[in-house]
Amino acid sequence: MTAIDRREKLKDAYDNAYAALRVAMDTHRRLARKLFEANDGCTECWGRGWIVTWDTLDSLTGCYHESGPCPNEACTPATRAASGLAPCSSKYYSFHAGSTWNPTDEQLDVERKLQDVASAAKFAYNNEERRWDIAVGRLVKVTGSRSRGRNRQPLGMIGVVKSLPRTRWGDKVVFLNAQGTECWTNGYDLTVIDPEPDLEALGFETKVGFPCLAAFLKLSRSGKALLVLNPLDGTERWIPVSQINQISVRRSGQTSTATKDKLRRGDTITLFVARWVAEEKGFATK
Fold it and tell me: Are 249 and 258 in contact (CB under 8 A)?
């Protein structure tokens, strides 16, 4: 089943929610402006009762400014109470109590509700965006050809992301194709086509690779390979750690995922590798 990409739908919902919030805020400001003008609000102090008389450029915040009473003789506490504050802003208002315009309680309640809706829409959209980011276990398709050399993969190739290693040449993406072959490339050449793929239905062997039952013997000095006993033919085999997608170990009747450093000699383990590795090491027939 192909995953449904909801990014466009959620982006529209996110844009509409914030548009509704902006419309409400603009409407509340226009209503306050009309009320201010209808009650002959003072355009000298804009309903504040004071004006700036001096300031310096030593501080852009306006903290050194000086102020004085409004020079408009018709501007009185009574007229200012009737007109209210003009819905404008200034860096000086924060230094004077009661000079910052705010919507009414009813208007604030409306804006908060719209803000909650917009925030929820943004959260849902961001989650969907991350869902389609390149990550381990997601199905990707090669859609670009900017990578060079061995990192360039054929256009249209499909695979499941195995790891996202960081190398001296930058961040890379390692993915496995349907045959279990490991491919390296750059993330900008890939597009996620299914964040939750059904790999078996798509023809992939498993999400983690071909299972190989073995007995652990030791880890190499470099830590880059495991020496295991192949129970099928009784031979000892070195398996490169770079080719192992996952390790499962069985102890005391319980099976769990383990790292190479946690293995003990004699452990019964299952290594999940690409099929060609399993065939090369004698765990599967060609």
Answer: yes
pLDDT digits (tens, 9 = 90+) for 228-276: 998 888 899 999 988 888 888 888 877 777 888 889 999 999 888 888 8
Helix 7-38 / helix 105-131 crossing angle, nearest 10 deg:
160
User: Are the C-beta atoms of 186 and 170 separated by less than 8 Å?
Assistant: yes
Dump pLDDT digits (tens) for 194-238: 888 876 666 665 446 678 889 999 999 999 999 999 888 889 999
Each residue of 4-39: pLDDT tens digit?
Answer: 889 999 999 999 999 999 999 999 999 999 999 999
Distance CA 91, CA 42 (A): 19
Which sequence spans correspond to the domains of the chain?
7-129, 139-194, 210-280
Phi-psi region of 149 (alpha: psi -120 to 50; beta: other; left: phi over 0): left
The position carrying tokens 């690779």 is: 209
Beta strands, E only, the chain: 50-54, 66-69, 139-142, 158-163, 166-167, 170-171, 173-177, 182-185, 190-194, 210-219, 225-230, 235-240, 244-251, 254-257, 268-273
Tokens of 160: 């499941």
Entry pTM: 0.62
Q: Decide: 261 and 280 in contact? Cβ < 8 Å.
A: no
